[in-house]
Design brief:
By secondary structure, the protein is of the alpha+beta class. It contains 2 helices and 5 strands; from the N terminus they run E-H-E-E-E-E-H. The protein has a single domain, classed as Roll (Thiol Ester Dehydrase, Chain A). It is about 25% helix and about 30% strand. Bound molecules: coenzyme A (COA).
């Protein structure tokens, strides 16, 4: 059987970008995209990133607070970019930056910044270790340290 790849992975190797066009079925009566639709795209984009990084199935374990900064309307574009910001034993923190775009003018604006924690799942359905993030630059080392501090807060919030 081939041995499992446990080597640290560079952040760039799992970055995921998605572009969605807002159609009437994505929108509320004001013509703005539903928050829940944005959340579904956030979860998808982040899940692809987590699975690219870990090489395993990954499930959503925790979503940090979400603030919707500005609406995106029917006929406009939603751009998502996700990257792994920190890795732990079986879990990973993924940041997703969402922007609105008017594709005719090129104007872009911030919509949502989200942090989602995923857990890698083995074939038997249990959490399984993930490859660490390669800490090859100051910004990635800072990102890992900040992710570890946020993880402590999440676990404290959800402790029973
Ligand atoms: C996420 C899940 C696998 C964790 O299972 P568990 O029995 O708590 O497993 P463990 O205690 O071994 O924890 C596994 C990892 O989850 C992390 N975790 C658990 N709860 C967490 C929380 N509230 N916030 C952040 N991480 C959390 C643990 O810290 C651990 O990570 P680590 O190994 O990197 O330290 C389990 O709760 C689950 O299956 N939840 C449902 C997931 C789901 O259906 N998502 C939506 C569809 S994809």
């Amino acid at each position: 059987m081939p041995s499992e790849d446990t080597a640290a992975r560079p952040q760039a190797s799992s970055v995921t970008e998605m572009t969605e066009y807002v159609l009437p079925q994505h929108a509320n009566a004001l013509g703005n995209v539903f928050g829940g639709q944005i959340m579904a795209w956030v979860d998808l984009c982040a899940a692809i990133t987590a699975q690219r990084h870990s090489g395993k199935m990954a499930v959503t374990a925790f979503v940090d607070d979400l603030k919707f900064q500005a609406p995106v309307k029917v006929g406009e574009v939603v751009r998502l970019r996700a990257r792994v910001t920190a890795t732990f034993r079986t879990s990973m923190e993924v940041e997703i930056v969402v922007e609105g775009e008017n594709s005719r003018t090129g104007n872009r604006w911030p919509c949502v910044d989200a942090l989602v924690t995923f857990v890698a799942i083995a074939d038997d359905g249990t959490p399984t270790p993930v490859r660490p993030l390669l800490l090859d630059a100051d910004d990635v080392r800072a990102s890992q340290a900040a992710g570890e501090a946020r993880r402590q807060q999440r676990l404290a919030r959800t402790a029973r």
